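Ferrous iron transport protein A
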Amino acid sequence: MLSIPLCQLKKDQCAVVEGISCPSAKLEEKADIIQRLLDLGFCRGTPVTCVNTGIFKNPHAYALRGSVIAIRNEDAKMILVKLPPSKTL
């Protein structure tokens, strides 16, 4: 199963945080960005649901760990999530 950026979740779609990737940032910036996202609760294994989108699809609001957090698409692109397997009959 492939990981996708969090910003690609549609409203009411659920996924699980797989990790954080910020390849374009400088080393010092990477540590700050990753720590900020971890502090917000975007830790590996955390279930997350897209609950709302802003005007022009930015920012998105996500429910995780009992809170709703709005983050910009540029930050949500760094958070990789896995979708649950589709149920087939």
